[in-house]
Design goal:
With about 120 residues, this protein is α/β, with parallel strands linked by helices. The chain has 3 helices and 4 strands. Strands 1-2-3-4 form a 4-stranded mixed sheet.
Length: about 120
């Protein structure tokens, strides 16, 4: 029950941010590319407006490039949420055939939990 309440409160805060950023958007919006997924606000006419929230959906596989894009987006006022879209990311990968299962793989040199404001 406590998890449901926490999830509900998290969603309320997220909705508040979505509303605030679409109404008072003062940031430069850059449409993200993988491993980032752009978040959009959708109005009553079904028009999508990009907002300054991005999901990090899988490890930084383009060594250096992904971190550079992360820093650029952060400098432009982006907020980041981790999103389990790839295997168990950002948790430990359990697929024995995935090179990222090995914690010495270069994708794990980044502390993904500290790069995001939350994980959904």
């Amino acid at each position: 029950m406590l998890k449901i309440i926490i999830l509900f409160l998290f969603l309320l805060v997220l909705l508040f941010f979505l509303y605030s950023f679409t109404k008072y958007n003062k940031f430069t919006i850059t449409i993200c590319k993988r491993p980032f997924v752009q978040v959009f606000a959708v109005d009553e006419n079904n028009h999508k407006t990009p907002i300054n929230i991005a999901l990090i959906t899988f490890p930084f596989i383009h060594d250096g490039e992904d971190l550079k894009l992360y820093k650029e987006l952060k400098q432009n006022g982006y907020y980041f949420l981790g999103c389990t879209s790839y295997s168990e990311f950002p948790g430990d990968i359990t697929n024995i055939y995935d090179p990222a299962k090995d914690k010495s793989h270069f994708v794990w040199k980044y502390d993904y939990h500290n790069l995001v404001q939350g994980i959904i």
